């Protein structure tokens, strides 16, 4: 009697395990499909965010370029004023020297 029950129990266990594994496999495939959809949506969102960031960055660079040019202009203008100031002090030094010589001559 024991010899007759053992093969039946083994077959039943094997059938139950097979059914469980098939159900788990089907659920796993469903989860993988859903995760693929979620990853595609996330990838699209990241791509759109990159496009927005790129266009915003280009606009910001376009707005800031005149200020960089203005900064360079002010720097160059200041350097030019210093050169002119040095030249004027050189010219005035000669005039001051002539005035001193004229006073000494009197």
Count of alpha/pi helices = 1
Amount of helix: over 70%
Q: Overall pLDDT, averaged? A: 85
- The N- to C-terminal Cα distance equals 151 Å
Give the DSSP E fraction (strand runs of 2 or more residues): under 5%
Shape: rod-shaped
How would you describe this structure to a colleague?
The protein is mainly α and 106 residues long. It has one helix at 2-105. It is rod-shaped and about 140 Å long. It starts with a helix and ends with a helix. The mean pLDDT is 85.
Sum this structure up briefly:
The protein has 106 residues and is mainly alpha-helical. Helices cover 98% and strands 0% of the residues. The chain is built from 1 helix and no strands.
How is the topology of this model organized?
Layout: H1 2-105
What are its keywords?
106 residues, mainly alpha, 98% helix, 0% strand, rod-shaped
């Amino acid at each position: 009697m024991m010899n007759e029950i053992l093969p039946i129990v083994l077959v039943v266990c094997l059938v139950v395990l097979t059914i469980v594994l098939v159900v788990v496999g089907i659920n796993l495939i469903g989860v993988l499909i859903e995760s693929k959809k979620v990853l595609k949506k996330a990838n699209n969102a990241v791509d759109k965010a990159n496009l927005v960031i790129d266009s915003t960055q280009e606009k910001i660079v376009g707005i800031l370029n005149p200020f960089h040019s203005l900064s360079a202009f002010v720097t160059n203008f200041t350097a030019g004023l210093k050169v002119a100031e040095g030249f004027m002090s050189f010219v005035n030094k000669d005039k001051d020297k002539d005035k001193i010589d004229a006073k000494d001559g009197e």
